Structures are given as C-alpha cells and as structure tokens.
Amino acid sequence: MRKVIQSLLLIAVLGFLAAGCDKNHNPVGSSPTETDLSANTPNAPSILGNRVWHDLNENGLQDDTLVETGFSGVTVELYSGSGVKLTTVVTNSKGIYFFPMLAAGTYSVKFSAPQGYRFSARDNGADTLDSDADPVSGQTAIITLPVSTADLTWDAGLYEGQLEEDTVVNGTVGGRVWFDVDNDGIQNDTVWNDVLTGVQVELFACDETLVTTTSTGDDGGYQFANIIPGQYYVAFTAPEGYEFSPADATDDSLDSDANALTGNTVCFRVDSAEAEAY
Q: Is residue 204 within 8 Å of 115, Cβ to Cβ?
C-alpha cells in the first residue's frame, strides 16, 4: 500500500503539525503516505509518525475523521528493530505524534492504551486509514525506514474496553537440536536420532542485530521467552565435527530449519502470545 510521493525539504515535513491539515490530519497539498526527501536533501534524516484516534465503530479504520477525533495524551514509544527502546513522545490535541531525525534502519512503534481502552483490529484497510498496532501489545510490525523518508502511516485506533489482566503479550521462540543419523533432515526416529546438548543458539532481529543467546539443554531443547513482536531469525552453531542436515525436508514440526551452509533459519515473524518452533 506504500507509495513514494512528492519531494519536500525536511523542514516542510517537520512543520506539518503547525501547517494547515486536511480532514485526515495530513498537511494540505500533500499525500498522507511516504514522502521521499532525497531529491532536495540527500542523506537527510528520516521521520516516522502519524495518528491515534477514537475508533467509535471499532472497525479499525479512520472512516470519519470529523466524528472519530484524534486521541490526545497517548504515550508512544520508538524501538529499534532489535527491541531496544529509543525514545518516547505523547500525542498532541489532534492525536498526532512523530519521531524526527531518524537514521535509516529498522524500527517499531509501541502505543500505550489509556485505562479503559483497547486497540482496534489492525491492517483492515489502506495504510493511510487503518490501525497498525497489535491489538494486544499495542506494538507495530518491524518498520524498514529508508534514508531521507517521511513515513507518516503508523496509526492506532482505540475504543472503550478492557483487556483481561492475564493476557500474554510477548511471544516465544524455541525448538530442538538433534543428531540426524541418516542425514535426511527429519526427526523420524527419536531412538536413533539422539539430541545434542550444549549447542549455541542465537536469536537475531532481521537487521542482523543480536537479541539474545542460549544453549540447548539435556533434552536438546532451547527457548527464547518474552520476545517482543517483530521479525527474527535463529542462528545455530554446529559443534566441532558436525554439519547441518538439509533444511525444510517435511512438516515444520519434524524437519530441520537451519540452512545447511550457514546454520541460520529464514526470517520469521513473532506476534503477541505466539510460540514459534525452529
């Protein structure tokens, strides 16, 4: 749904809060999607932002901005792609927020629902109109932000309601490392295919930032708990004298997922309260 539109000076984008806005709270004379700033300001910093609104009909869409007004005073946090919190802002009287002066890279945005409110369903329509916050955690997907770009498409809808206190927010990644006797990449005989203990396993964000490290236990298993929703891959280190089996030979619950040459899995997404097995 993303598109590149007109080129502007960075100062024009940073001034959008003070400028005249259309009914969707976007600067008059501009489009409410991504803006490429590179034509006039090569290698200029980038910006992320947009709007939190009262989603009165709970459909996850800003379908009547005259009635579904902006939500002021909402805390919005910016995280790196590896899950490190970078900075915090609060939405203004129109529900607008932004993070200026950002380097190109991967990020995510996390919204905090005020007491008595919960998040709308996400990705129900065009990026300029829908809600992007995970309904449980309030966090967006990983955002890849190019250089010299204004990405003003990250919104959150809120409606009255309360999450249960025991709701699980973050996800889990885990799996098993085993000795594949017949080298077919399948756990097809747990008697002969013994487990391997003490194997180093690392979790990386898809921007290649190391998140955490562990080792397989006595049962060959490993687990990364309390993982912030986002995109990740797992890297296994083969013990001396061992090589990796072929990857993706059969069903995910039985096969090997590590690339036979690198020992890395493909990138995958972890959502709220989700368990990924690799």
A: no
Strand partners, 222: 175
Structure tokens that stand for 267 in this block: 């990138």
14 near 43, Cβ under 8 Å? no
Would you state the structure tokens that stand for residue 93, as one six-digit string? 């009287």
The sign one gets for the Cα dihedral 53, 54, 58, 64 is: negative
100-150 pLDDT tens trace: 999 999 999 999 999 999 999 999 899 999 999 999 889 999 999 999 999
Query: Three-state SS string across 147-202, please?
Result: CCEEECCCCEEEEECCCCCCCCCCEEEEEECECCCCCCCECCCCCCCCECCCCEEE
Q: Give the pLDDT of residue 222.
A: 93
Q: Is the pTM of this model over 0.85?
A: no
Which residue type, as a one-letter code, is found at position 195? Answer: V
> With 0-12 CB in 10 A as exposed, 13-18 as middle and 19+ as buried, what is 95?
buried
Domains of the chain plus CATH, in order, are 4-160 (2.60.40.10), 171-277 (2.60.40.10)
